[in-house]
Amino acid sequence: MAEERTFDEHDAESLAFNLQVGERLRSIRRQKKMSLQDVELQSQEEFKASVVGAYERGERAISLPRLRRLATFYVVSIEQLLPRDDFTGDASAVFVSEKLVIDLQKLAMLKGQEFDMLSRFLSLIQVQRGDFNGKVL
């Protein structure tokens, strides 16, 4: 007879973690303007749409090696795919009187030390925000 397993605190933590990782995965994919099918096609079927969808819904746990490959595919650091439990504020609570938009694609075409320095600074801002669409900031 099969032994009955109970749902414990460890299971709850694992489920919560999987859900948070899934939210990050979905957020990054959407910022890249990719559908699940796009991921499957562009990864040459390394990442099946149904499996990535299961990761995003928190229904399936992702291994660290696979998470690293997915980070490489999305061109982000693996840290950006992990939950951010150090964030305590509400980013939408920041008041901005005027909106500044920086065209990252045009900036990438510029040459010179000043532009390299600005590009590195803007990359840091992207990492802090978790914003990886790569077009505007």
The tally of beta strands, per DSSP, is 0
Shape: globular
Structural class determined from secondary elements: mainly alpha
Model regions low in confidence, pLDDT < 50 over at least 5 residues: 87-97
Q: Based on the structure given, which CATH architecture of the largest domain is correct?
A: Orthogonal Bundle
Helices and strands, with pairings:
Elements: H1 9-31, H2 36-42, H3 49-57, H4 64-74, H5 104-109, H6 113-129
Helix pairs in contact: 1-3, 2-3
Description:
The chain is mostly helical and 137 residues long. The protein has two domains: 10-81, Orthogonal Bundle (434 Repressor (Amino-terminal Domain)); 91-129, no CATH class. The chain contains six helices and no strands. The longest helix is centred in the first third of the chain and has 23 residues, at 9-31. It starts with 8 loop residues before the first helix and ends in an 8-residue tail after the last helix. Residues 87-97 have low confidence and may be disordered.
